[in-house]
Amino acid sequence: MKIDRDQFLEDGYVILREVIPPDRLEELRRAYELLVERQKVIWARERGPDDPPGGQWETNAQPRLMLGGMADEIDAQTAAAVEIWLHENVQGVSSQLLGVEDAGVTEMMLMCSPVRDHETGGHRGWHRDFYPPHAAPLQGYTDDILENGPRYVQWNLPLYDDSVLWVVPGSHNRFNTAEENEALNADPRRPLPGAIQVHLNAGDGVPYILPLLHWGSRYNAQMRRTIHGGFSEFSHYEDLSYLEHLSPAAQATFRRWNGRSDQTFAQIEAALRAVIGKDGAGYLAALEGLHPGRGEKGRLLSTIFLSKSAKRVHQLKSPHFDRLPALEQGWATHIHPITLHWGRPMADRFTPEESDALWARFKYVDDLVQAEEEQWTPGFQGEATRYYFEEVPEALRVEGFVASFGD
Description:
The protein is an alpha+beta fold. Helices cover 41% and strands 13% of the residues.
């Protein structure tokens, strides 16, 4: 498939036609609809005492299937729902857009229409898909993208015509403008200045870069089945028991990606252990192993990500972990390879004493990305926080972090 990577990097997204070959569309509709029916049974079984009979299917503004957690439901009848992620028009294009040889799928989802209209336009208005307390300030992303290209490409692939998504071209590599902030503060569920509505026919696709300002404008009962997820160099699969139902080529691909996931895990552990040991050269070597050839901005973003990972390891090894708010516990255990978070599997590699030393070193980074008072910038996920939403302080440098090991 012909793509314009320069346009993608400039605008932060690109609209591609007939990503799903027309002769595959009905097969995919059948496979995904069968998964929807199976998930509805699960949601009905898991509903709370005050929920309607259908549970989340009836209450959610955007019922969403997470294929990574549906291994038992993927069989010969539904294997096409996974196989489409390996198609050259999806995986191959993602590799081109990321500038890598072999992008791996990180998340496989399906966004569905709710059973009734949600007048507020869904669970949120305009937003960027990250929250700095768990990731990094926006500048960390934009500097890395401008220096090295994106680390992640996200997709919408509708099985039926879909014009729900709006985007602001070019917003992936800059801060919000004053005009945008004024509009977001006034009403985050209206088109922003310069915004574009993405009109996709069934089978078309729109890959976009993660920090892009975007908005799901309509959450109503009009039929929607839109494949959603993304690719990066990093991936993690907790359950691949369904591989036997995939083609031999697909099985080999997932096993290759899973092996690379194990290597990433080992490189992250090496980076964290180098910090515990005050081994600056070892730390820089581990960063190069994670991101070969990335420059100073790339190493800085990874260092901010690793500071969050160190905090999660420290929390998970704490005897007081159960006293943390439920949301913090969830973030600590969540595995998110794109931001180098590996949850309990990583924490289990460290003793409580090692986790104390690890966090003591990385607190240097964590302190620098926080203000003295809580603040808020519109167009992001989450609530007000002391963590900077946009700027990375000038004082924060990888060399400064490594030098702090001797303090």
